[in-house]
Design brief:
The protein has ten helices and ten strands. It has 353 residues and is of the alpha+beta class. It folds into two domains: 169 residues, Elastase, domain 1; 137 residues, Neutral Protease Domain 2 (Neutral Protease, domain 2), CATH 1.10.390. A six-stranded mixed β-sheet has the order 1-5-6-4-2-3, with helices on one face. Strands 7-8 form a two-stranded antiparallel ribbon. α4 packs across α5 and α8 crosses α9. It is globular.
Length: 353
């Protein structure tokens, strides 16, 4: 597996550690137990990624040009990956809705990348897309481990099945796109950009699948994932960072919308899931200012930056913002696209260089 700037072991989860930490402190053991076990499992998987050395290209056959090559496995509530193959490319849907949703989500991500950005799978070269469902027991997360997608079923009390929101599937797969392109370091501002890029394109995959304009979209990440007892609507909001949930068990969504509220912390790899709210909000502002389908203009600009070769692994918010302004001008000239992108970063307090 080769990446821009060399290979960096990747382990990226959709549910941030601070959410699971809060849940693990709940007085109700039925809530705290699954959260603690999920944190332990995540720590183990993260360590495994660091111990794994990947040399050269991935030894798998590429799919035919422009066609996905999907395989869904069932871990049967164990943790051995990839598990038992239950659906391959072209196979008809089975009775397991989780398998069918995972298969469809892999396909939706592949389709947006191909149709909107002429990218053949996450590596640009037809990489097969593999997923494992029913991972572990009451596992409250989904992750990309550098090679494949993995989905838990949730505990049924706080989190439901992680294949339900298509943007969660897209979010995790786009960590793969970042891995094969800019390979943004997973710490601090570069890590928050890494998370934000996944939220941006995860949301665009959902909007593309639903045929929504920027004005019609809810701009939520993980809507449908929270169980009915939770006071909240999603994991994150790109429209209004900090408002996705406010729950007596989960606490309040800590995401800032602007640099005025930037969070300095050593937790969560320097707050990668928290401060991603700032570039997320910038994208929302640019996309809604432009109107129409967000994947077409705003999405193209962000994609150009991610894949253009100028984005450094250690890029800060200002570096990314500056490159989006440059990309807007190069692709669209000195028009409304440039104006919308420049104003969006100004509104969230990120100065372009």
């Amino acid at each position: 597996m080769t990446t821009h700037g060399g290979f960096e072991p990747v382990f990226c989860t959709i549910v941030p550690p601070h959410v699971l930490d809060k849940l693990a402190q709940a007085e109700d053991s039925a809530l705290a137990g699954p959260a603690r076990r999920t944190l332990e499992r995540d720590a183990f998987e993260r360590t495994q990624r660091r111990l794994t050395t990947v040399i050269g290209a991935t030894a798998v056959a590429a799919a035919a040009d422009g066609k996905p090559q999907r395989t869904v496995h069932d871990a049967r509530h164990g943790t051995d990956l990839p598990g038992h193959k239950v659906r391959g490319e072209g196979d008809k849907p089975g009775k397991d809705a989780t398998v069918n949703r995972a298969y469809a989500g892999l396909g939706a991500t592949f389709e947006l990348l191909l149709k909107a950005y002429q990218r053949d799978s996450i590596d640009g070269n037809g990489l097969p897309l593999n997923a494992t469902v029913h991972y572990d027991r009451e596992y409250n997360n989904a992750f990309w481990n550098g090679e494949q997608m993995v989905f838990g079923d949730g505990d049924g009390e706080i989190f439901l099945d992680f294949t339900i929101p298509i943007d969660v599937i897209g979010h995790e797969l786009v960590h793969g796109v970042t891995q094969y392109t800019a390979n943004l370091t997973y710490f601090g501002q570069p890590g928050a950009l890494n998370e934000s890029v996944s939220d941006v394109f995860g949301s665009l995959i959902k909007q593309y699948t639903l045929g929504q304009t920027a004005a019609e979209a809810d701009w939520l990440i993980g809507a449908g994932l929270l169980a009915p007892r939770v006071t909240g609507k999603a994991l994150r909001s790109m429209k209004e960072p900090g408002t996705a949930y406010d729950d007596d068990v989960l606490g309040k969504d800590p995401q800032p919308a602007t640099m005025d509220d930037y969070v300095r912390t050593g937790r969560d790899n320097g707050g990668v899931h928290i401060n991603s709210g700032i570039p997320n909000h910038a994208f929302y502002l640019a996309a809604t200012a432009l109107g129409g389908h967000a994947w077409e203009r705003a999405g193209l600009i962000w994609y150009d930056v991610l894949t253009g070769g100028e984005l450094k692994q250690q890029a800060m918010f200002a570096d990314f913002a500056t490159l989006t302004v440059k990309a807007a001008r190069e692709r669209f000239g000195d028009g409304e696209e440039l104006d919308a992108v420049s104003k969006a970063w100004e509104q969230v307090g990120v100065r372009t260089l």
